[in-house]
């Protein structure tokens, strides 16, 4: 996803269907993994380094009854991932 020019990413809630995993847990893991994977330590880097950032991550759930739970899980994700990235700094 770090390829130049990629701005928008979409993914399904892996494992929440046939895998019978909790949709909230899957969605939260996707969001956290995305933030953790996007992290780069840039404190000692020059401002000239190219750094394309993804503007939008869409988590897609086909089952309408699970959308509210998935949305809530994705909204919770910054706490753990941002704390981890802050610790990395």
Topology of helices and strands:
Blueprint: E1 8-12, H1 23-38, E2 56-60, H2 67-76, H3 78-88
Parallel strand pairs: 1-2
Give short descriptive properties of this protein:
11% strand, 3 helices, 42% helix, 89 residues, alpha+beta, two-stranded parallel ribbon
What does this structure look like?
The protein starts with 7 loop residues before the first strand and ends with a helix. 42% of the residues lie in helices and 11% in strands. It has 89 residues and is an alpha+beta fold. The protein has helices at residues 23-38, 67-76, 78-88; strands at residues 8-12, 56-60. Helix 1 (23-38) runs parallel beside helix 2. The radius of gyration is 15 Å and the shape is elongated.
**Major β-sheet strand ordering:** 1-2
Structure summary, number of beta strands: 2
Low-confidence sequence ranges: none
Biggest sheet descriptor? 2 strands, parallel
How widely separated are the two ends? 22 Å
Q: State which percent range the strand residues make up.
A: 5-15%
Question: What is the radius of gyration computed over CA atoms, rounded to a whole number of angstroms?
Answer: 15 Å
Element pattern in H and E: EHEHH
Number of helices: 3
Quick synopsis:
The protein is α+β, with helices and mostly antiparallel strands. The chain has helices spanning 23-38, 67-76, 78-88, and strands spanning 8-12, 56-60.
């Amino acid at each position: 996803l770090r390829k130049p020019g990629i701005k928008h990413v979409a993914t399904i809630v892996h494992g929440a269907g046939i895998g019978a995993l909790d949709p909230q847990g899957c969605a939260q893991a996707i969001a956290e993994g995305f933030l953790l994977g996007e992290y780069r330590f840039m404190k000692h880097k020059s401002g000239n380094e190219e750094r394309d950032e993804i503007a939008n991550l869409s988590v897609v759930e086909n089952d309408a009854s699970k959308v509210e739970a998935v949305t809530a899980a994705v909204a919770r994700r910054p706490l753990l991932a941002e704390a981890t990235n802050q610790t990395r700094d």
